[in-house]
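Question: Hello, beginner here. Any chance you could explain the protein record under this note? Any guidance would be welcome.
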Amino acid sequence: MEFFSALADFLRPLWGLWLMVFFAVIIAFVMWPSKKRQKDFEDHAQIPFKD
């Protein structure tokens, strides 16, 4: 049990860094240019104008 307590004490300050990296990965995935996704986004953007 002592091992897990020491591990938790070591990893606790790194949660902020881990969450920032995770957020950056999500943003990079969403913003990364892709032909298929770009076409899908353009199609979705035109939905309000289609009657």
